[in-house]
Every structure is written in C-alpha cells, then in structure tokens.
Amino acid sequence: MIVEDFIPKSSSKSIEKGSFTWSSPSNIALVKYWGKKAHQIPENPSISFTLNNCKTTTTLSFSKKETNNSFSFEVYLDDEKKDDFKPKIETFFKRVEVYLPFLKDYHFKIETSNTFPHSSGIASSASGMSALALCLMSIEKTLSPSISEESFTKKASFLARLGSGSACRSLEGNLVVWGKHIEIDGSSDLFGVKYPYQVHQNFKNYQDTILLVDKGEKQVSSTLGHNLMHDHPFAQERFKQANKNLSDIISILKTGDLDKFIALVESEALTLHAMMMTSMPYFILMKPNTLEILNKIWAYRNTSGSKVCFTLDAGANVHVLYPENEAAQVLEFIQNELVAYCQNGQYICDVIGLGANKM
Ligand code: PMV
User: Ligand 1 atom 4: the closest Cα is on which residue?
Assistant: First the structure.
C-alpha cells in the first residue's frame, strides 16, 4: 500500500550535510491497540496519554555520499555503537523510502539516549521511532521548505507508525487518537491526531507513576503478539469492544467521571493481557508482583475512596494513574505499599505531557 499524499513532489533545495535533534516522549494507551493488518494498519482505534518525562532524544547527522544504491547508517545508544539496533532501522528505512526519496543519498549517524533506563522494561520504540521520524522530517523540510507545520507533524506521525505502530501517538500532547473512529473527527488509520474534543479539568496534569516490576527482556515481542490476533478466537469481539470504549471515553473525558474512567481503563489493561493469555500459543507477561500491585490498588481504592487506577503495557510493569490533586497521598501509598514489589524498588514519576520538541 502506497499512500500518494505523503510522497514529496520535488525538492527545491539541496543540502550536503547537517544534523537535527528531536526529543520525543513515550505514551501510555487508555484504549489499547493490539492486532494489526498489513502495512501497520491497526485493527482498532486507540487513544493514549502522551507522557512528559519518559523521553528519547535523537540526533541525526547526515552527509551526502557518492553512490545512492543502498542505505548507509550507524547507530549509537548513549555513545555506544549498537549494531543490534540496525535491522529494525533498516526495515524502517525500507518501509519509508518511497516517502523520503533522499534516504539513500546520505550517510546517517543516529545518536540516541533515553531518560529512562534502557533495560527498564519501558518500551523505547514509541519515543525512539517518533524522534527519528521527526529528525528525518527536518531534513525533508530543509529540502522542501514550503511544507506546513500541520503537514510536517502529520507526515512525521505517518512515518513513525511505519517504525512502530504506537509511535505515531508520541508526537503531540496530551491525548492522541490513532485509528479511524466514526465519532472522532479527523481520526485516521495512517497517523495519530490530537484528541479534538473537550477534556475535563480532572485530567489536567494527570499523573502516571510507572512501577518497574520486571526489567528483563520481554519473552514475547509485541510484533509477535499483534500477529497472534490474526487467528484469535476472541479477536472480532475485542475490536468491537475497543471501538465502543473509544465512543464511551468521549463523554468520560468531557464530564470528568473518574469512576467510569477507572472502569474503562482497567478493563482495557486486563483485556489486553487476556488476549495474550488466550492466544495460541498463549503467554503471560504479568508477574506475581504485577498482581500483588493490582490487588493493593483495589484495596487502597476501597478503603480511601481514592480515584487511583492502573493500566498495563505489553509487559509486567504497572502504570499507576491518578489525578493531580491526589498526588501527595497516592505517592505516599506507592512508597509505603507498592515499592516493595518493584525490582530494586525502582519507579518513575511521570505526568501527561505536550509532545515532541526540536532541540
Ligand atoms: O507499537 P507496538 O507495535 O509496540 O504495540 C504496542 C501495543 C501496546 O503498547 C500494548 C498498546 C498500545 O496501544 O500502546
């Protein structure tokens, strides 16, 4: 599938060498994307909070080369050469080459670093792929300066999606929808869009404390997990449910109904993991401590009346979500009761953020 709109017509300028740096955040889905069609098209729409502190900063340096018959690049993480990152980037370059015709004209040096520990179990693919897509778009803008800011962001999200699906939700803040949904104007399967409707004050500066339960490599990659949705017995019902949850979250976000928000978000998290447990082959990414934490959160909510809740990514870590006005109490609860279940007592305090920045 080639999307003509994103193929540049011609470039008016040329450039020998240069470098661009972008910093892009991670995001956490409220309604989850799990299952995709060919060309990174999601089976259902999703919505996420953009994070603020968990970020990747990438500098892309480029210099014109003699021949233009293959990709040429080197990758560094925290100043250390990372040849094991190359296959993923090569695949990404192949997918986006038609949209960025200059890719084979340059040698690239990609230098990247994360604000969160690399082996924290926090996926760096969303922040990393969106930062790289933005750097590439900065080159395109240098070659074709007339591109508008809106088209720049849309195409950067489109490219990021081709690197890692959820990366297309990491460019803007603070709520982003990806995937066509009839009730959300402008939504698309091809790129993420800023959530276009009213959001209640209750969600302002919403807090996300990420409890690092297990920092090991995932036993099952998300690519494999998405693929297992193809012959999944519950897939169609799940995609229907995600569509309904996205409809329902529109009024929840508008009215600020935190009880309904909690029910929707926790159900989404557990459904994601239920899909994993009911795939063939089946797998479990939660750890015993993940369940301990969920039970503690439920018990705390019952006794305190707090509006704290959890969500999960494709891993064992727990994202603890709560309104800003409960920050002090919930942090105390986390420190007193939940940190014991984190690997080496580690957790990361984050808050919903505004999206990527050019440095
Ligand atoms: O972007 P991917 O292919 O790594 O998939 C991520 C899927 C989840 O994080 C589990 C859910 C989501 O919507 O972010």
Answer: 222
Domains 3-198 and 201-351 share a fold: no
pLDDT of residue 235: 98
Low pLDDT (below 50) residues in the chain = none
Question: Domain segments of the chain: what residues?
Answer: 3-198, 201-351
Terminal CA-to-CA distance of the chain, rounded, Å?
33
DSSP string, 162-205: HH-GGGGGSSB-SEEEES--TTSTT--SSSEEE--S---GGGTT
The CATH code that applies to domain 201-351 is 3.30.70.890
Query: The domain at 3-198 falls in which architecture?
Result: 2-Layer Sandwich (3.30)
Residue 151 CA to residue 9 CA, distance in Å, equals 14
Q: What does the pLDDT read at residue 216?
A: 72
pLDDT value of position 120: 67
Taking the CA of residue 126 as reference, the ligand 1 atom at the shortest distance is 1
In tens, the pLDDT along 96-131 reads 999 999 999 999 999 999 998 776 667 789 999 999
Distance 298 CA to ligand 1 centre (A): 25
Distance 331 CA to ligand 1 centre (A): 27
Name the token pair of 140: 């395109």
